[in-house]
Amino acid sequence: IPVDPFDLVIFGGTGDLAKRKILPGLYRRFLAGQIPSDSAIIGAARADMDDAGFRDLARAAIVEFVAADRIDDTVLAAFIERLSYVSIDAQGSGGWSALKKKMRKNTVRAFYFSVAPSLFGDLAERLHGHGIADEDSRIVVEKPFGRDLASARELNAVLARHFAEGQIYRIDHYLGKETVQNLMAVRFANILFEPLWKSEYVDHVQITVAETVGVDGRGAYYDKSGAMRDMVQNHMMQLLCLIAMEPPYHFDPDAVRDEKLKVIRALDPVLPEDIVRGQYLAGSGQGGYRDHAGDAASRTESYIALKVNISNWRWKGTPFYLRTGKRLRARTSEIAITFREPPHSIFDDAEGWRENVLVIRLQPNEGMNLMVMIKEPGPGGMRLTQVPLDMSFATVLGEEGEDIPDAYERLIMDVIRGNQTLFMRGDEVEAAWAWTDPIIEGWEKRGDRPRGYDPGSSGPEDALMLMHRDGRRWREIR
Ligand code: BG6
Known about the structure:
Elements: E1 6-11, H1 16-31, E2 40-45, H2 51-65, H3 73-81, E3 83-87, H4 96-102, E4 108-113, H5 120-129, E5 138-141, H6 149-160, E6 168-170, H7 178-188, E7 202-210, H8 219-223, H9 226-244, H10 253-265, E8 275-280, H11 289-293, E9 303-308, E10 320-325, E11 332-339, E12 357-363, E13 367-375, E14 384-392, H12 393-396, H13 399-402, H14 407-417, H15 426-446, E15 451-453, H16 461-468
Parallel strand pairs: 1-2, 1-4, 2-3, 4-5, 5-6, 7-10, 8-15
Antiparallel strand pairs: 7-11, 8-9, 9-10, 11-12, 12-13, 13-14
């Protein structure tokens, strides 16, 4: 379904995110017929460039980052025609009247702040000062949204000076992933799971986001952040919220975000013994974390595992184990919900018994897998075995499942439609930092050092203990 025609200004339009995600995403939506041709997409950045230069940059980025079988030369040419460029001084006056002239006066106006957060205030002020934005305009901001509670509050306050909460779209691209949204459909459109979705029946939950890439090339940024700030405070927190939240009364932005906020507020502080941090070592001809960070004494973690408890009626007694890291064995993200033992076993075959596990695969090979017990086929008596009810979206949904839109495509279209459900509200971000800050302060005060782990492994050995201690084990990363 096409969206209304819009004017979209991408501040930081020549940057990495614009090239990798925003422009390719917009092209794919244009290809899908979702973007009306009287829309305007305007790149704005410091670089001195004309429309033709920006169009060349965009074309090259699309060819590089969109699959070759999705490149249609005629459609690409028509898309490129929608693009123009303004060289702008975010902190001065240069370029603003030119920008105003380039806007097509579509009613839907969105401004993507793909720039350093320190410029948010300057941009917001000038957009209003030059009469380019009004009370219907939308702004899009990216993580990192602050590096602690104080800075997140400050950013919220800066934006609130010029924009109402209903105009601010804070992106967490995990919320745009197809399977992440599917989590809500699975939970709330089926009667099957929800009655079991509580500590009485769920033994524990594991959330894994494993990556094979290191931080080479972005070590300077990453070293000031670390896995806790880069992945846990935002992406993993969002996954945890979608698993743990109460059913919202309606699939509506504030109803959903109210429920997520309640989960974050119910998180217990994390004990030092429930945290394992790691740094990848050098290996396979590649440098280690400290080489990439450019600091031989860095204590920033490229891996973290945590045991998180939620103090509410539904989840008390069901720990959530979270882990994420760089340079691990495989790129895989999944959520695994492990159910408890049946109250009584009528079978003698205790050995064959395994817990039911519902695995939701976020990437790659998006899908779901429910591990169930059955009788082992054959005449050997009542022996038990576990089999997967395996649903790969690519298989059950055919082509549609194979061509799952990128998170950014979905989210940018939601901005244009004015739907904030998949964006973080200011209070949510602040609550997430309020939980994160003491954890980081704790290890800084104690002077904890991250453990080294081999590249291509599953992370530091100590992380195994985090679960062994509780009589549980991590699922294999593969
Ligand atoms: C980003 C982090 O937000 O998410 C990166 O800054 C990380 O460090 C990336 O690699 C992971 O995203 P995805 O979509 O590849 O799982």
